[in-house]
DNA sequence: AACATTTATCGTAATATTACGATAAATAGC
DNA sequence: GCTATTTATCGTAATATTACGATAAATGTT
């Protein structure tokens, strides 16, 4: 016990859950918002912006990257993180479809 | 350590994260999809549908309720769970806004 | 080559999550 | 009032997450 029974659910359900989970932390929301609004995507700038240590921010970045929402490009000694446009669009679509599938009809 | 520094982030960021977190589990996705598609919202029917024990399903339902996405109405000895239309619409809007705020412009 | 800067990874600790069985609580029917 | 049915809660165990400091790795600069 203690581990999600991934294999019992469909790929779609697992993919959707993974995406939502990646977004499911205020620090990662803050990182995404920062990447969207600013011109600077350098990791160090994100660390300066957030009230978290460098290693913690790096971990959050790594999870966002694992979920595919962002990508990192090495730029000298630093790394430039950006929204992965294609994956972002797909996530938007998949999550949007879940919300749209409810048409407002309840049985009770 | 080990606990999220909620107070360091904005209410919007925390609310968004809470919503995403609630959706961030395949079982809860499955529950939501089931509630949306079926006419039956009785807890027992959800338990029959999912590959999880009754107590685990009840826990997931409780989290979805805590997040405000569903509501439960007592119907005799059983409970009828339904999507909370108002909260669903709000969640859809808030999450949609996050995705829409990215217009496809990266710095790198 | 030595050094500074930047980021990732490791090790660790605390808390949270997931899951289950067992039990309790509430209602319906006899 | 007893019994069956349905759901919530409690107790517990295993794994995951969050966070930090310390250290390693990689690059640029002197």
| The CATH class of chain A | Mainly Alpha
Residue-averaged pLDDT of chain A, rounded? 93
What general form of chain A does the structure show? elongated
Question: Order of strands across the biggest sheet of chain A?
Answer: 1-2
CATH architecture of chain A: Orthogonal Bundle
Fraction of helical residues of chain A:
55-70%
Task: Label the structural class of chain A.
Answer: mainly alpha
| Most residues in contact, chain pair and counts | A-B, 52 and 52 residues
Descriptive account of the structure:
The structure is a homodimer of 108-residue chains. Chain A is mainly alpha-helical and 108 residues long. Chain A has one domain (22-99): Winged helix-like DNA-binding domain superfamily/Winged helix DNA-binding domain (Arc Repressor Mutant, subunit A), CATH 1.10.10. Chain A has five helices and two strands. Chain A has a two-stranded antiparallel sheet with strand order 1-2. In chain A, a hairpin with a 2-residue loop joins strand 1 (70-75) and strand 2 (78-83). The model of chain A has no long low-confidence stretch (mean pLDDT 93). The structure holds a DNA duplex (30 and 30 nucleotides).
